[in-house]
Design a protein that fits this description.
258 residues; alpha+beta; 9 helices; 22% strand; 8 strands; de novo design (two linked rop proteins); elongated
């Protein structure tokens, strides 16, 4: 069988780093091959036709040639630039968070069309919908499912009892909720307010159509964001960078204050 030395794929640009005098190494999440790293030669030259199609968060159709170390992007055509994200600094920060999470949790290990679709849908929703926090928390919850880290939110992970409508605990070690009796005896468990847990449970058991109109009250949203990010940090064993960027923007709403 003849070996194929080039291929076409749809991809979302996660980020890039400068390489040499005119090249860039591009990190991509593709529909056909999952996460890959490729090189765009000459893309930093003024006359490059590929540069505008390889910006972060862009969904593009790419043609790549097999390379010795890195595959080479020879053609690129934008399918969706999510331009609305680039016109709003807070949404841009949320998009940065979305791609950072998927980048940190995934490896170059083959196709995962579920993650690709989730990423594309999330960027599109972030661009157009008013309840951006709901979009992000739904994304986090679905991504945990797809990665095999689905937390147990409906039964105590220790004794198996049904979780009731009251304040609970969350154990990152065992990956789920602990009832008050079990949680109070574990020093590494985090306390969780019942309203925070209610929204997270709704995210986990629902399809997007059942969630898209949800607006999370500010106090609960802050607690939910903190809980999920702490869990992600525990799983990664390192902190994410983009949440601090987002907090800085929210402290300076117009993005211009010194």
């Amino acid at each position: 069988m003849r070996e194929t030395h080039s291929y076409r794929t749809q991809a979302i640009v996660l980020g890039h780093i400068e390489y040499g005098e005119a090249d860039r190494i591009i990190k991509l999440f593709t529909a056909e091959k999952g996460k890959i790293t490729a090189i765009a030669k000459g893309v930093r030259k003024i006359r490059s036709r590929k540069a505008g199609h390889l910006e972060p968060f862009t969904r593009a159709s790419l043609f790549l040639a097999k390379g010795r170390n890195l595959d080479i992007i020879t053609q690129a055509e934008t399918l969706d630039s999510y331009i609305g994200l680039r016109e709003d600094l807070e949404r841009l920060a949320l998009a940065s968070y979305v791609v950072e999470v998927v980048d940190r949790f995934t490896y170059e290990e083959g196709q995962n069309i579920g993650i690709f679709r989730l990423l594309a849908n999330t960027l599109s929703r972030l661009e157009t919908l008013p309840n951006a926090e709901t979009v992000v928390h739904y994304y986090e919850t679905r991504l945990l499912d797809l990665l095999g880290f689905r937390p147990q939110l409906f039964e105590c992970v220790n004794c198996g009892s049904q979780i009731r409508e009251e304040d609970q605990f969350f154990s990152p070690l065992t990956g789920g909720v602990l009832c008050p009796k079990c949680g109070s005896s574990q020093s590494d468990a985090w306390s969780v307010k019942k309203d925070t847990l209610r929204y997270w449970r709704h995210m986990q058991r629902s399809k997007w159509q059942q969630v898209e109109s949800v607006v999370i009250p500010n106090v609960i949203e802050t607690r939910l964001a903190d809980l999920i990010q702490r869990y992600l940090t525990y799983l990664l064993e390192r902190s994410l960078n983009s949440p601090e960027f987002l907090r800085e923007i929210r402290r300076k709403p117009d993005g211009l204050e010194s």
